[in-house]
Amino acid sequence: GQEITNLNCNWYILGGAQIAGNISGLYVKPTVTTTYVVEQYLCGNISYDTVMVKVNNTGIKEHNNDFFNVSIYPNPANNKITIIPENKDAIKQITISDITGRQVYFKKSEVYFYQTELDISFLQAGNYIVTISTVNNVYNKKLIIARP
After folding, report:
1. DSSP reduced 3-state for 71
2. Residue 105 pLDDT more than 90?
3. How many CB atoms lie within 10 A of CB 46?
4. Rounded distance, CA 120 to CA 123, Å?
5. What does pTM read for this prediction?
6. Contacting residues for 7 by C-beta, under 8 A, at least 6 apart
7. H/E element holding 9?
């Protein structure tokens, strides 16, 4: 993921040793399916999340640049976020899901927009996945909501 400053995160291989410390984002390219655990200290709380990188020999090429084509800021957020596609690709639909996959927000527009600000004050503090559907692509971005 993208490195975000001022986040105290430690990364581990599931059931194994620590592989990185004090870094929020991590780039890995395992040769076999591997599960990673991130331990995050945020506002005096410890939370954990897992990421499984599944390795299949499908012959499909990796698209390294897709992750960075949409910006969400601020992240971590409090009450509002702004979403901007960096390549000026028009946004058609936005969905926010909690870490269990339950949809907690949905916005679809007949008139496409190039930037939007969302009120997220109704969401509890925690980790979410924001799915942004544009005219040309679908992007998934992690959103952290942190409140004092």
Report:
1. strand
2. yes
3. 9
4. 6
5. 0.54
6. 24, 40, 42, 76
7. strand 8-13
